[in-house]
Design a protein that fits this description.
The protein is α/β, with parallel strands linked by helices. It folds into 2 domains: 134 residues, NAD(P)-binding Rossmann-like Domain (Rossmann fold, 3-Layer(aba) Sandwich); 166 residues, Dihydrodipicolinate Reductase, domain 2. 31% of the residues lie in helices and 26% in strands. It contains 9 helices and 14 strands. The strands form 2 sheets. The chain has an 8-stranded mixed sheet with strand order 8-9-10-7-11-12-13-14, covered by helices on one side. The protein has a 6-stranded parallel sheet with strand order 3-2-1-4-5-6, sandwiched between helices. α7 crosses α9. The longest helix is centred in the last third of the chain and has 20 residues. The protein is globular.
Amino acid sequence: MSYLAGEPATEKVRWGILSTARIARQRVVPAMLKSPSTEIVAVASRSLENARNFASAFDIPRAYGSYQELIDDPEIDAIYNALPNHLHVETTLAAAEKGKHVLCEKPIGLDLADALRLKAAPQGVLIGEAFMIRHHPQWQAVADIVASGRIGPVKAVQTFFSFLNVDPANIRNRPETGGGAMLDIGCYAIASARLIFGAEPVRVQALIDRDPVMGTDRSAAILADFGDGRQFSAQLSTQAFRFQRVGIVGTEGRIELDTPFSAPTDETSRILLDVHGPGQPVEKITFPPVDQYALQAEAFSRAVRGTGPWRYGLDDALANMAVLDALFRSERSGNWEKP
């Protein structure tokens, strides 16, 4: 946890897990158990049996057969919301109204109008969007290199993010629950571009292809103008070979990330830094294995207890959602759109 700002909380944050979804079971909850400032005390599912099985697997004391029971539990400080996209705002707002801090899976809502409802959350309640990549040391290194000026002003960012999923029963392929490439992985591409440029795009355009049977956006090409000659492009697909890469080019050098979004927890990660040009040595910067989900949980817990910062609150989530909204408008209009 040495990569994080602040200090571990002297009093652990008591967490409730909203949903027994695969990401909670395989990624987030095992990671949260590594966080010294985190204690998981309850889990909820629509099925009490599923909740009990999940609780048994992770030695969680309490299991609930409804989401509201967990939200009403007075001995929970914070909630991790892993529900399907169309339930994010409703349940996050309900938890916030009970005074609970919420780390919500991305995207924060179905669209900007949906997400703006979270503005009604009580003051003092922390709401964060779960972009775990922001806590990985490789992204912190990228931000530091860019800020140092070592590659000069950034002029272009290119992203590729794809995987293969053609199962119509999969939640990612159901448009009514917020499935599709843009909301599932496009949100990462946008969030990372905003991080690199340290700015918001002034206009965006999208070419989107939809699955003729499922209706979801299965592939998308994105262009974004960040002003002053700064450009972002991305190719996304949920029906292509699994691959990811981010390239950043400035006036004096470039950075390349091999695994920008799904960095392994049991292997080193690396970024390539090239400040000499073609045919010359490229600096390889490696990072020891870390669990970015554990770092995310620890950072949020520290922020809840006031022993560390949380730099990406609700306003940041709304800004990301505004870009996604504009991209969908561009699909319909065929024109550039302003977020």
